[in-house]
Predict the 3D structure of the following.
Amino acid sequence: MMLHKEPFVRPTATSLAKALNITRQGLWKSLNKLVESKLVILEPVGNTKKSAVTINLQWKNPITIKTLSLLLTRESSEYERWRANFAELENYESFTILFGSIIHSSKEAGDIDILTIVIDKNSFKPIGEAVSRMQKTQAKRIHLIDLTEEEFKEELKKQNKAYIDALKKGIVLFGQDNYIKFIEKITKT
Amino acid sequence: MKTEEIAKKLRESFKTAEKDDKSGVKHKGLVFKGFNDKAKGYIEKAKKELELCSFYKDKGFDYKIPEEWFYTLYYCALSILSKFGVDSRSQRYTALFLRYVKEKGLIDYEDEFIRRITVYSKKGEESDVDRREEARYSSSIKIETVRERYEEITMLCKNAIFQAEEIVYSDKKFEVPKELVR
């Protein structure tokens, strides 16, 4: 999951073990299984045998995409409340990410951060109207960011911290398959 | 009313309603129906009621608004009862049940939301039940006090929905206290 949450980072075994808070040995055990299943590919950084390797998703394998989709859908099902609250957005979006403090502490959160990547520019208006309707019954302020895929891609390239964080720590509420396609595209470019 | 008195009334309600239900008579109290998915439906209904308020406000139907406020709070209450697996056909017992489980520390739900749906029979004691009836049956269409308090009560209803959602979507299991159904 971490590999697609930070698409611009090419993690090494050391950095990934640190991020996951596990030993390198433990990580290698899991990595070897993933490599064997062709879900992950290891690419050496240098030319020597002892060169460090970066760990990447094996996009060529359709099972990788299906596995990611299943994991993301499972993760989003744990946020049923927010899926119900924002269900209307599903009609207009390519994918939607819930992020910020609402994920971990709904009571204390000041607002609800939502990042919606629209199907096309015609979707901006109905999404805005839908959110206004939702706000009529929502105690917390809904902070909506709606962008086209191109705009989102540009912001990520510019290393926009808020958007990178949304990818890294957010929950893909809807459009998991579109989200994966998007990540695959930006990883390859 | 003391907690023990509330428990006594609730026990009687469960007992009578169950008896009525089994003998094919429509019950007028609380019945334990088991866990179901109705709670989420009531939350949706509470939201629809609140959405209606802004429609009525825009169209000048002030006298309809207190009714929608009341039902927003009432559907929130029913959603919580459903989470406990309880079916209610009595406003009085709905409020009493919430008060009891709140006093027992089983739910985190503001007293104000419960007080507003409480049925009072003594003169001088009022809640939204009375204000709803007053607005509904009086001859006025425009009501100044409704306009003045619109934002405040709407926010209160939004908070009730939020807190009810916290309960309804929680993974925690909510069970009717044994002393009420033994």
About this structure: The longest strand of chain B covers residues 30-32. Chain B touches chain A through 18 residues (CB under 8 Å). Chain B has a mean pLDDT of 91.
